[in-house]
Amino acid sequence: MDQQQPARRRSKSADEISNAYADVADKLARWRRLDRLFAGRYRRRQFEHANGRVLDVACGTGRNFRYLPSSSEVVGIDICAEMLAHARSELDRLELDGAVHQMDAQDLDFPDDSFDVVISSFSTCTFPDPIAALHEMERVCTSDGEILLLEHRRSDAAPLAWLQDWRAESHYDKNGCRLNHEPLETIEQAGLRIENASTAFFGLVTTIDATPR
Prior knowledge:
By secondary structure, the protein is an alpha/beta fold. The protein is built from eight helices and seven strands, in the order ααααββαββαβααββ.
């Protein structure tokens, strides 16, 4: 039996995703130091040169903010109000020029070509319709801008991949996260131009530099 398929066949609604993350927002905020230890290096490499007006899609508790250039103007959006409360605090703590708004990534309330760079981390696994969310990122990004993504994926190491497949359904039911998804396939399906992509940590982590069509 192909364990990858169940988590791919069903999709939670945006409200269900919001509720799932509302329940763990405080816990995730407390884990910021642990996140820096394991994901900080990848966030820094992917986002440290995101200059200009930057949109952080599904910004969560604001974990990407500290890795952005201090000269950038950051706008964060997330579907979950409880996550955004921590993101606002993070902006204030870092003294960054920016704001956060509650918004559905699949229906961004911004005009076309509003941002120089669009970033997002560990998010395409949770969007009910990731293709729609990627199209929205593309729409609000300037034609000469960048879409920078940091994602998890199904591991290249067979034992880890087996574990991801085995846990995929229950993990999605609990957390709204597709544990064994393939972000590169999703981005190719969305039609974005992939300029560069690399994997790390047994293939579990993928960084993707894309540009609008």
